[in-house]
Write a structure and sequence with these properties.
Layout lengths: L1 H6 L1 H9 L11 H24 L10 H12 L8 H17 L3 H12 L14 H33 L21 H20 L9 H8 L4 H10 L7 H13 L9 H13 L1
Helix pairs in contact: 3-5, 7-8, 7-10, 9-10, 11-12
């Protein structure tokens, strides 16, 4: 809005000057200076806001790089800035710092940035990297154990479903048999997870214009556990805009004339509206 006013300031002044009752509304040089200061401070944020509000691409991993860029250059004080521009930039930076100051939020942003092959550890503080690696290793080990347990249960069910011609007799030892993982297997799993994590870090970062989801799809064979975590974390939206669009879509579906729809039917209609 401010950019449009500054662009058409001459036309606005000419229209207002032709009306005797509206001449007092003609912007003065002080008004124009205030508008220019606000525009200079806030205009760079518009593109980032629009980009982070998208839902057709990954956005959560962009937050750390964008916050770093805003603090380092776009919202940094300039010698040509007016006092108003400096004040706006300072307050915006203070607001962003407070908004993302929660340790859990910071850890989530670090994990998302780590799992994006375009950034990895580039925008993560050096003292936070060990904690992020430990968290990812723990989740990778849990995922591997769960996957192995699921395969074992599937095989057991398949074997129990087969009719046996003659029922085998149980020995006394079978009553005391337990399924406890041996220390050797745990050490082996830890080594596999550590190797997968280190291999990912040594892999060259991809270009910023490439799609990280396509990269993970191509390399999920090399990084089976990390690719699962990438799907888990990179699907998180950076802003609430996608969920707000869903509420708007739901409001367009559940109207006064369609107020008796069942929740399951509403879920299906919203899904079709957003995916067709």
């Amino acid at each position: 809005m401010i950019a449009r006013v500054l662009e058409q300031i001459k036309a606005i002044s000419q229209v207002l000057s032709s009306d005797r009752n509206a001449r007092h509304l003609i912007p003065t040089w002080q008004d124009i200076e205030v508008l220019e200061s606000i525009h200079k401070a806030l205009h760079p944020l518009q593109e980032f806001t629009d980009a982070l509000s998208g839902e057709e691409y990954i956005s959560i991993s962009y937050l750390k790089p964008i916050l770093h860029l805003l603090a380092a250059s776009l919202l940094a004080e300039d010698d040509e800035d007016t006092d108003l521009s400096r004040s706006i930039k300072t307050k915006v930076l203070a607001y962003l710092k407070e908004k993302y100051s929660d340790p859990d939020t910071q850890e989530l942003l670090d994990v998302a940035s780590f799992l994006d092959p375009r950034f990895k550890i580039q925008y993560i503080r050096a003292d936070h990297i060990p904690a992020i690696k430990t968290r990812l290793k723990t989740e990778m080990e849990q995922s591997a154990r769960q996957e192995k347990r699921s395969r074992t249960e599937t095989v057991s069910k398949a074997q129990s479903a087969k009719p046996s011609a003659e029922k085998a007799k149980k020995s006394l030892c079978s009553f005391f048999k337990t399924s406890v993982a041996s220390p050797a297997l745990l050490v082996q799993l830890d080594n596999v997870v550590e190797a997968e994590l280190n291999t990912y870090l040594f892999t060259p970062a991809i270009d910023g214009e490439e799609n990280p989801l396509a990269w993970w799809k191509l390399h999920k064979i090399n990084f089976p556990q990390l690719s699962k975590l990438a799907r888990k974390y990179l699907c998180v939206p950076a802003t609430s805009s996608p969920s707000e669009r869903l509420f708007s879509t739901g409001g367009n579906i559940v109207t006064c004339t369609r107020s008796s729809l069942k929740p399951a039917k509403v879920d299906m209609l919203v899904f079709l509206a957003k995916n067709i």
